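Just curious: can you write whichever protein you like plus the matching structure tokens?

***
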Amino acid sequence: MQQDQDKEIEQAAVLKSAVLCERILQDVRTRRFTLESIFETISRKKFPVRIEKWMLYIELTEIRRPISVKIEVLRVTGELLGDTEFEVRSQDALEIIQYPVSLPPVTALQEGVCLVKIFANNKLVGDRRVIFSKIKNGL
């Protein structure tokens, strides 16, 4: 019985959603979030491209005790471009925790893919990809 309870406590959080956007606003009265300029692709005329401000909106549930959440931004080669880490707490494991995360600035040297990986207590719970593409003439 105790072993089953320990397993339940050790389970990582469940990621319900992860959305990349330029800005996240929160209404002070309702506490609701508004996501602005949702994207998966960043298109530019020339490279390198530097993205200074971008955010990740995540929803987590099944949080039974305080957990450490780490967000890593990587090239597809595995090179770490930046990361951020924070703690999430919940009073109820069924509660869905909404969390806006400022991501570290990144530079794309050329067209390609960047990965945003989400970890809860060092376990990968989800990821998003960002495609950097070059705008073709006339488009």
The chain has a mean pLDDT of 90.
